[in-house]
Design a protein that fits this description.
The protein contains 10 helices and 8 strands. With 239 residues, the chain is α/β, with parallel strands linked by helices. It has a 6-stranded parallel beta sheet, with helices on one face.
């Protein structure tokens, strides 16, 4: 099944207008769930610290660039402000992992590690693999994981290279979250390459689908191309 979920969700005036049992449960358990555990509060404390940081690092941007800055030297506070998913979106992902009992997650675009930390808290048995292209940002994320005492497989490398390594293994994923390299062609290429390691009933989520005209076009093509695939696809952003 294919679902432009958020558009569908916001069209429904009440939860009773959502007819699919799966979608109904997602609305109640994920999007209408505001419960916040102590472990998530600790992550948000780390976010606040990053937003106040005066530290700057050298960054090699392999993606479509940042809307906050185009400089190769960036401040941690700007990365935290512009490149990290907001709290409400992280909470959605946390509750999605929790409600669907997701055991294996792949994230493309670690940034400073806030989102991966949320994903790792959703299920005590979840295994999270996250990929970041920039070595300095990847180090910051792994430092965060250590501070929070969360087990996350944080990998540094260009997406296609790490995906090639993953394809060689026998591992598959229940959830793949694509939040990096916001451009049409790479997004379509990643999707095609990742489908073999996405479980048949897995969930594929894209962030920033309205980042650019190219991303909008990619989203349309993805929805058409996945109509015969049994996975669910969600989109975040730009509603």
């Amino acid at each position: 099944m294919v679902l432009d979920f958020l558009k569908y969700y916001w069209r429904a005036k009440t939860v009773h207008q959502v007819h699919s049992e799966f979608v109904f449960n997602i609305v109640q358990d994920v999007f209408d769930n505001s419960s916040f555990s102590q472990s998530l509060k600790l992550i948000e404390e780390k976010r606040i610290k990053l937003l106040k940081s005066n530290e700057t690092i050298e960054v090699v941007d392999f993606g479509a660039g940042s809307k906050g800055s185009s400089s190769s030297k960036k401040s941690i506070r700007n990365i935290a402000k512009y490149a990290v998913s907001p709290p409400f979106q992280c909470l959605w992902l946390y509750h999605l992992v929790r409600s669907q009992k997701i055991n294996r997650v792949l994230e493309l675009g670690t940034s400073l590690g806030i989102t991966a930390a949320y994903l790792a808290q959703g299920n005590p048995h979840v295994h999270v693999t996250t990929i970041e292209g920039d070595p300095n940002i990847s180090k910051k994320a792994n430092d965060l994981f250590d501070e929070l005492h969360v087990k996350i497989d944080g990998r540094c490398g260009q997406f296609n290279e790490v995906i090639s390594d993953l394809l060689k293994s026998s591992n598959t994923f229940d959830l793949i979250y694509i939040d990096g390299h916001h451009a049409k062609i790479p997004t379509l290429e990643y999707t095609e390459r990742l489908l073999p390691i996405l479980n048949s009933d897995g969930i594929l989520i894209y962030d920033d689908i309205y980042w650019s005209e190219g991303m909008k076009e990619a989203w349309v093509e993805i929805k058409k191309g996945l109509q015969i695939h049994s996975s669910w696809i969600f989109s975040f952003g730009g509603l």
